[in-house]
Amino acid sequence: MAGAIDDYLAQGLFIYLFASTIAMGYLATALLLEE
Questions:
Q1: pTM for this prediction
Q2: What is the C-alpha separation between 13 and 8, in angstroms, rounded?
Q3: Residues 2-24: pLDDT tens digits?
Q4: What transmembrane ranges does the database entry give (predicted)?
Q5: CA dihedral defined by 23, 24, 25, 26, rounded to 10 degrees?
Q6: pLDDT number for residue 20
C-alpha cells in the first residue's frame, strides 16, 4: 500500500514540476511577444 502511495506522490510531483515549467515558458513567451 505504501509503495502505491509513494508512486502516486512521485507522479503528482513530476506533473506539478512539468506543468510549472511549461507555465513559466508560456508566461515568458507571452511577455516577449507583447513587446
A1: 0.55
A2: 9
A3: 778 888 999 999 999 999 999 99
A4: 13-33
A5: 50
A6: 95
**5-24: string of b/e by CB count within 10 Å (b at 16+)?**
eeeeeeeeeeeeeeeeeeee
Q: CA-to-CA distance for 30 and 21, rounded, in angstroms?
A: 14
Grid coordinates representing 10 are 512521485
| Largest separation between any pair of C-alpha atoms in the chain | 52
Centroid of chain to Cα 27: 13
The CA distance from 21 to 35, in Å, is 22
